[in-house]
Amino acid sequence: MPYVDGFVLAVPRRNIEAYQAMARHAGQIWKEHGALSFVECIGDDTPYGELTSFPRAVQATDDEVVVFSWITYESREQRDAVNAKVMADPRLKDSMKDMPFDGKRMIYGGFQSFLEL
Asked: How far is the C-alpha of 86 from the C-alpha of 79, rounded, in Å?
């Protein structure tokens, strides 16, 4: 079963096109270095909950949209190797100079799959 890196972040609505371009570029780099898949989703049904919610988790404002993303790998070891290559790739560093979102509010983590139906 694949190893998964998951991400949740808030993108200002005015920056959606810039984010999509950045994600497309980054996804190609991750795939070139061995990621199995690279998926980006823009929230269209993410209500602000009273206690917990996607918008609350990333402190999204009314002019931001929640993005939910994941990258899959063969294993954690392969993920670590791929990420090392990606982080050293100058193409990624160039595209991250003017990020179209606040990276401080991004939530991310690695997950071991245990069920796929």
From this structure: 10
Strand-by-strand arrangement of the 107-112 sheet: 37-42, 64-73, 3-12, 107-112
Angle between helices 16-32 and 76-88 (to 10 degrees): 120
Digit-coded pLDDT (tens) for 21-32: 999 999 999 999
Other CB atoms within a 10 A radius of the CB of residue 51 amount to 5
C-alpha separations of 46 from 11, 57, 68, 109 in Å: 13, 11, 10, 20
Tokens 């984010």 sit at which residue? 19
Q: What confidence tier does 20 reach under pLDDT thresholds 50, 70, 90?
A: very high
10 Å CB burial of residue 8 (0-12, 13-18, 19+) is buried
Class for domain 3-97, per CATH?
alpha beta
Task: For residue 83, give both structure tokens.
Answer: 């990420």
Q: How far apart are CA 10 and CA 56, in angstroms?
A: 10
